[in-house]
Structure formats: C-alpha cells, structure tokens
Design goal:
GO cellular component, one term: cytosol
Number of strands: 24
Mean pLDDT: 92
Distance between the termini: 11 Å
Number of domains: 3
Pfam families: GATase_6, SIS
Helix content: 25-40%
CATH topology of the largest domain: Glutamine Phosphoribosylpyrophosphate, subunit 1, domain 1
InterPro entries: GATase_2_dom, GFAT, GFAT_N, GlmS/AgaS_SIS, GlmS/FrlB_SIS, Ntn_hydrolases_N, SIS_dom, SIS_dom_sf
Strand order of the largest sheet: 3-2-4-1-10-9-11-14
EC number: 2.6.1.16
Oligomer: single chain
CATH superfamily of the largest domain: Aminohydrolase, N-terminal nucleophile (Ntn) domain
Number of helices: 18
Low-confidence stretches: none
Radius of gyration: 26 Å
Strand content: 15-25%
Largest sheet: 8 strands, antiparallel
Enzyme class: transferase
Length: 609
C-alpha cells in the first residue's frame, strides 16, 4: 500500500525523494511526507492529500541536505491527516522513521511509553517506533534498532534516521517489500523498483529478518543477530519507459491496450511453436508430481481470486483434479483441509498481497507444496513459494488490474493443459487444438481493441446509472464477477454479478425498468439456458447488453445491444470476454469524471490485513 523512499549521497535528497514517491503513487496513498538532515537537525514536511501538495510546500520552503527519507501513506491507524502522515519522530526530534505495515502490539507499547513521559502527536501505530528509539538509545544507533525490533510485533518495512549518526540510514523488513538501489557514491532505498530505476538498475532485495546499514559508499546487510548476509545483486532489466503513460490519458487504458503484447510474452517459450504442448521450464514436473495430487487449493484476493475461479474450471475440466478456490483473507481461519497431497496455488499481481502471503505460509505449515503465480520477480510471495510462474505482463500502474488479470488467465490455461497432458487426461489432438487457439489469442485481443466506439457509446449512455447487473453461467459467471468488480472499483457504480440460474431465487426482485444488465452468453453448453435468463430480465424491462461470439446471430434478437468477441475454444473465452468489460468500466469511469488510475479508498498492492 504505502510507499517508502530513502537517499544518502552527495546530491540534495529532497528532489529524489519527491521523484521516487511520484513513481510509487500507483500503490495508493492519502498523504505524503519527507524528512531531510540539513547538517545540524532533521527537518520534516508532510501533508495530507496528493503528492503535489507536498511538492509545492517543499518548493516554497526547501528542505536541504544529502540524507533523507520519504513516505506515501495509506491510512490503517488514524484517519488521513497531516499529523498522521509519515515520517514520524520522537519527543526530541532526534529520530525519524517511515513504515509500511502494522505494529500489532503498538497500543501496549504506547501505554508504557506514555507512562514514562513520552508525548505522542499522532494516532498511528508507527509513532511508537520513533519513541522506542528515543527510549532505548545509548549512543549506538544500530544496537538501538535491534532492540526496537525485539520489542515490536507485526508486519513492516522500516527505515530509520538518527540525527546523531547522519552518515547512515538503517532499514529492515518483515512481510513488506524493501529494495536497496546501489549507486556510485550514493545509495537508495525504496519499497518498489520503479522509485529508483531512473537512478540505478543494481539492487539488493531484502528478505524477511534482514537489516541493512546504508551509507553513501556501502551497504552492509545482516540478520537480526548481526550475522553478515551475502546478498546477490539483482539487475533490473525492464525499461523505465514501461512505467509511463505513453500518450494515453490514463495508465489503465494504456494497460488494456498492452494486453496483446502481455499475453504473447507470457506464452513465449511455454507454448510450443508447433502447438504440440505446454512446457514450464521453471517447474520441470514429471507425471508423478501431478498424479500424486489429491486436490488443488487456489488462494487469492480480488481480481486474482476471479482468475482463480476460472482456473478451477480449467484444471478440473482439462486435468480432472478437484480444485477449491478460497479468498485469501478467509483461508487461514477455516482450518483448511490440506496436506502433502495438496498443491496450493497462490495468485497475486504484486507478489506482496499480505493476506495471500499469510495463506501461503499457512499452506506450507500444513505440508502443502506452494506454487505462486505473480507478476513481480523477487517479490515476497515469489521468494516464499516452492515454485513460481511469472506472468510477464510488465509493470502495471493503474490500481484496477487489467493486463495482469489476462496474463493470470493465460497462465491458468497453460497450467491446466500442462497438468492434463502430464496426467494423461488430454489426448494429443486436444492439446494441439488448445495450443493453436492459445497462440491466436493476442490477435483476437488486438481485433477487439481495434473498434471500441460502440463500447464507449454504451458506457456514456449508461454511465450515470447507479446500479448495473452482470449475468453469466459456467465460465461466463466467473467473468461476470470480474466485470462487476472492475465497474464498481473505478466508476463507483453499484455493480453485482450473479449466476444467471439464480435469478429466480431472489435476484430477479432487483430487476426494474431501465436497469442495465450485462449478459454474457459465450458458453455453448449453457447457451439456451442463458437466453432464457435474458428473456426473464427483458420481461422486467431491463436494458440488456449481450456479450456473444462472432457468428452468433441469435443473441441479438433478445438484447438491446450486442458486443461480439472472436470465436475461440470455450475454455479460453474468459480471456477475450473480459476485454469489453474492462473497456465498459474504463469509459464509464471516464464519463463520470472519476480518478481512473487511483480510485478512492483503494490501493494497488494490499500489504495490510
């Protein structure tokens, strides 16, 4: 959620801090602040609201110095306010800290510190860390940090400054990401690579329990006990321009149009050129790796959860293995029945989703193998899982996921084919057919994106309705769930998805004259039943936008508007049918004047429970 930046070197710190924070805006935030050491004291400036508010304040009253830290905050403890913004300091102003995550025992610590005379100025959990530094400090900054870490409990990425030791920054992490950028005579700290990529491509990615002492000329990494840790330099090999809008009005629409490329790249080297099969060199499974499985558990949140629902359909149908799909935030609390004969698949775009990471750890504790599907190399989930399949979607900046979702679906489809082949459940002729259709998908998506004017018109026409319903059966229902989520998260329209067969069991009471209904009808085995459901809502005077396959001339007889997608294998239609729904959501949000890339109350990477 929150974004951390830090700098130590010969240059002025403030310009880099503001620049780095701007590159982390996609993570979501409600306030921002920086702290800079000017040679005699640490000066802090922070403000609720957008980063440009802080930038204007710093421009009017510059913070000078070569050592500094910055932070963009998403509120967890205490409302968004100037006082609750990071960085936080102690009573003396000698110590300053920025923090991502949650200090679970902060209230107990706070009460003890208040009893000792400490005065708190915010409602945050983070401020206790600054006061603990003051309480424990006896002239050794590093030893003090270690003592603080022995006291606090929770999840965190932390960066510390000390006025008495201005030649260093100290940082550490537990369950929240933190990277160190390695420069020449300068070093950088950030919660994510985009913040530092314009300055360096050489990084250390900290692991849980590691602590780094960062000076302008060196980075010294140890564990909490002070034992040195040898770190491998991670070279960032993607282009900084990939994180720019490239002429589009919003990152979201840019990322929608990047889907043909993202899908193609995710299949590269995995789908055989002669369509003879799917290979995952990163897995190297043999038949026994699949036949030994009693079941599969898929765990994810939000959009990734919807990818998991599609994955369930695909794996059960193509590999004939039972699959359960769980919302990650509920997984740990239902005592899941998994063991060493279970494969747990965790899906997370960022690889930092805290609920999913916690579910991963629970699954491993219960003896399950864990396979991660993520877009971010070196992320926490990628490091914790037994094996990883990366979706090569490239950086995704908009909060609402689009290309990350479609690449997750591609991975699920490839994985189902891979497992079905290994298990002997898929005849080779069927494998050839599916692989051929997979390889056509980028072209089909490009075709869909060539003419979006009808979708734009529908969005503008119905964008001011306050209720929209999505209906589907089988795989179309899974896509309906994602379509509804996209619409409500960026346009703030109340949108709900229902399995169309459930209409008679209560949902039909919500259908009134003029209410828009998005009806997906791409699954031939339930097609006639879906048409019957469309007739039911039309009989209540709903306005129906149908999503059908090209060549289907029947659906348009029963709906008000039709959007056609290219015909493909029924198991691959979710990768195409979601595209019009993404576009509908985008243009509806734009019509309503919403902040498309940064919807209210939401963040890209949810790193708190």
């Amino acid at each position: 959620m929150c974004g951390i930046v830090g700098y130590i070197g010969p240059d002025q710190a403030a310009p880099f801090l503001l620049e780095g924070m701007s590159k982390l805006e996609y993570r979501g935030y409600d306030s921002a602040g920086i702290a800079v050491f000017d040679g005699s004291q640490i000066n802090i400036d922070k403000s609720v609201g957008r980063l440009n508010i802080l930038a204007k304040k710093v421009e009017m009253k510059p913070l000078t110095g070569n050592l500094g830290i910055g932070h963009t905050r998403w509120a967890t403890h205490g409302r968004p306010s100037d006082a609750n913004s990071h960085p936080h300091t102690d009573c003396t102003g000698k110590f300053v800290v920025v923090h991502n995550g949650i200090i679970e025992n902060y209230m107990h610590i706070k009460e003890k510190l208040i009893a000792k005379g400490h005065i708190f100025t915010s409602e945050t959990d983070t401020e206790v860390v600054a006061h603990l530094l003051e309480e424990y400090y006896e002239g050794d900054f590093e030893a003090t940090v270690k003592k603080v870490l022995e006291t606090i409990e929770g999840s965190y990425a932390l960066v510390f400054m000390c006025q008495d030791e201005p030649d260093k920054l100290i940082c550490t992490k537990q369950d929240n990401p933190l990277v160190i950028g390695l420069g020449e005579g300068e070093n950088f700290i950030a919660s994510d690579i985009p913040a530092i990529i314009s300055r360096t491509r050489r990084t250390y990615i900290l692991s849980d329990g590691e602590m780094a002492i960062v000076t302008k000329d060196s980075v010294w990494v140890t564990n909490r006990q002070g034992v040195p840790v040898t770190k491998k330099v991670f070279e960032v090999n993607w282009d900084a321009e990939a994180a720019e809008k490239g002429g589009y009005e919003h990152f979201m629409i840019k990322e929608i149009y990047e889907q043909p490329k993202a899908v193609r790249e995710t299949m590269t080297g995995r789908v055989a050129k002669d369509n003879s099969g799917v290979a995952f060199e990163e897995l190297k499974w043999i038949k026994e790796d699949v036949t030994s499985l009693k079941k599969i558990a898929i765990v994810a949140c939000g959009t990734a959860y919807h990818a998991g629902i599609v994955g369930k359909y695909l794996i059960e149908n193509l590999a004939r293995i039972p699959v359960e799909v769980d919302v990650a935030s509920e997984f740990r609390y239902r005592s899941p029945l998994i063991d060493d004969q279970t494969l747990t698949i965790v899906i997370s775009q960022s690889g930092e989703t805290l609920d999913t990471l916690a579910a991963l750890k629970e699954a491993k504790k219960l003896g399950s193998r864990v396979l991660a599907i993520t877009n971010v190399v070196g992320s926490s989930i990628a490091r914790e899982a037994d094996q990883v399949i990366y979706t090569w979607a490239g950086p995704e900046i908009a909060v609402a996921s689009t290309k990350a979702y479609t690449t997750q679906l591609i991975v699920m489809a490839m994985l189902a084919i891979y497992m079905g082949s290994l298990k002997g459940k898929l005849p080779q002729a069927r494998v050839l057919e599916l692989c051929q259709e997979l390889r056509e998908l980028p072209n089909h998506i490009h075709e869909l994106l060539e003419d979006v004017e009808p979708i734009k018109t529908f969005a503008q026409q119905y964008g001011f309705n306050e209720d929209v319903f999505f209906l589907g059966r089988s795989l179309d229902y899974a896509v309906a769930l994602e379509g509804a989520l996209k619409l409500k998260e960026i346009s703030y329209i109340h949108a709900e998805a229902y399995a169309a067969g459930e209409l008679k069991h209560g949902t039909l009471a919500l259908i009134i004259e003029g209410v828009p209904v998005i009806a997906l009808a791409t699954q031939k085995d339930v097609y006639e039943k879906m048409l019957s459901n469309i007739k039911e809502v039309k009989a209540r005077d709903a306005v129906v936008i149908g999503i059908g396959l090209k060549g289907d001339n029947q659906i348009e007889k029963y709906v008000d508007h039709t959007i056609y997608i290219p015909a493909t294998d029924k198991f691959l239609t979710p990768i195409l049918s979601v595209i019009p729904l993404q576009l509908l959501a985008y243009y509806a949000a734009a019509t309503r004047g919403c902040d498309v890339d940064k919807p209210r109350n939401l963040a890209k990477s949810v790193t708190v429970e």
